[in-house]
Design brief:
- This protein has seven helices and four strands; from the N terminus they run ααβααβββααα.
- It is rod-shaped.
- A hairpin with a 5-residue loop joins strand 3 and strand 4.
- It is α+β, with helices and mostly antiparallel strands.
- It has a four-stranded mixed β-sheet with strand order 2-1-3-4.
- It has a domain of about 130 residues: ATP synthase, E subunit, C-terminal (hypothetical protein PF0899 fold, 2-Layer Sandwich), CATH 3.30.2320.30.
């Protein structure tokens, strides 16, 4: 065997090893390339998903803002309509009270009750009662009898001049230092807040409660 043979074998072995290493590197390079491509694709997919989610979040946020704006606008409109309805009810009360006055028998009983209540609230005596022109003209000729029928134990004289009111009575002491305003307007003024709350809670219910309003 010549000396050339081992050299050729070595060369062949080296070449084979080089080829194997080259194939291995190529395989690793291909695997790395594929991994890079996969990573890039996954990164791109995740980025697209994030962008889509961000776009959806922005759209949803914009939608919620529009919905909230619409709800606020609707609430404002409902509040405006509600306030308008409340004002209509409160503005209609004077006309309803005129109907109370038109019921002469029921109104007379109510007027006696308001007179008694006002007289009992004032410790002084004698007292002076003030009525509107209609009641003044109707009751002046029989005022003393009306006071007795009402059950007032204090002396109460009728003021010579009528006052402007829908109905009811205003009672004061002789010195005009103490006064109880039991006119309809006076009662409405004192009951403004409860009335507002009542009408707000139960629209158009004020008329049904007029008896309670003036009865206590």
């Amino acid at each position: 065997m010549s000396a050339q043979a081992p050299i050729e074998d070595l060369e062949n072995a080296l070449i084979a090893r080089a080829k194997a290493l080259a194939e291995e590197h190529l395989t690793n390079a291909k695997r790395t390339r594929d991994q890079i491509l996969n990573d890039a694709t996954e990164h791109l997919r995740l980025r697209e998903e994030r962008e889509i989610l961000a776009a959806k979040a922005t759209a949803e946020r914009g939608y919620r803002q529009r919905v909230q704006a619409s709800e606020i606008k609707l609430q404002e409109e409902l509040d405006r309509v509600r306030w308008q309805l409340v004002r209509e009810v409160l503005d209609a009360l004077p006309a309803e009270l005129e109907r109370v006055v038109a019921d002469e028998q029921g109104y007379s009983a109510l007027l006696r009750k308001l007179l008694v209540q006002a007289a009992q609230a004032i410790d002084d005596k004698p007292l002076v009662a003030e009525l509107n022109a209609r009641d003044h003209g109707r009751l002046a000729p029989r005022w003393e009898a009306f006071v007795r029928e009402a059950g007032v134990t204090k002396p109460v004289t009728l003021a010579p001049d009528p006052i402007a009111c829908i109905g009811g009575v205003r009672v004061r002491n002789a010195a005009d230092t103490v006064r109880v305003d039991n006119t309809f307007e006076g009662r409405l003024d004192r009951l403004h807040e409860p009335l507002y709350q009542l009408v707000t809670e139960r629209l158009f219910a004020a008329a049904a409660h007029r008896g309670a309003m003036f009865g206590g």
